[in-house]
Design brief:
The protein has three helices and no strands. It has 75 residues and is mainly α. The chain has one domain. The chain is elongated.
């Protein structure tokens, strides 16, 4: 699920619209799977907690893997 966030950031460096798409996608994924974490069924609760922590971590770490911007005016 989270691999797409890194791909969008690599394909569109410095584009604010791609970051907005990532934030909205992550928010809807966190909401959907986060609600499973509230389930009283142990399997659904464990799956929801796993997805909640995994997608949350990918969303927080994905900006660190963007390529550096080229310096302006230099070769």
């Amino acid at each position: 699920v989270g691999v797409d966030y890194g791909i969008f950031l690599l394909e569109h460096p410095g584009d604010g619209e791609s970051w907005t798409a990532i934030v909205l996608g992550a928010a809807s994924t966190l909401l959907a799977f986060g609600l499973l974490a509230l389930s009283s069924t142990p399997a659904l609760h464990a799956f929801g907690m796993t997805m909640l922590s995994g997608v949350g971590a990918v969303w927080l770490l994905s900006p660190w893997f963007r390529p550096r911007a080229a310096p302006h005016g230099g070769r």
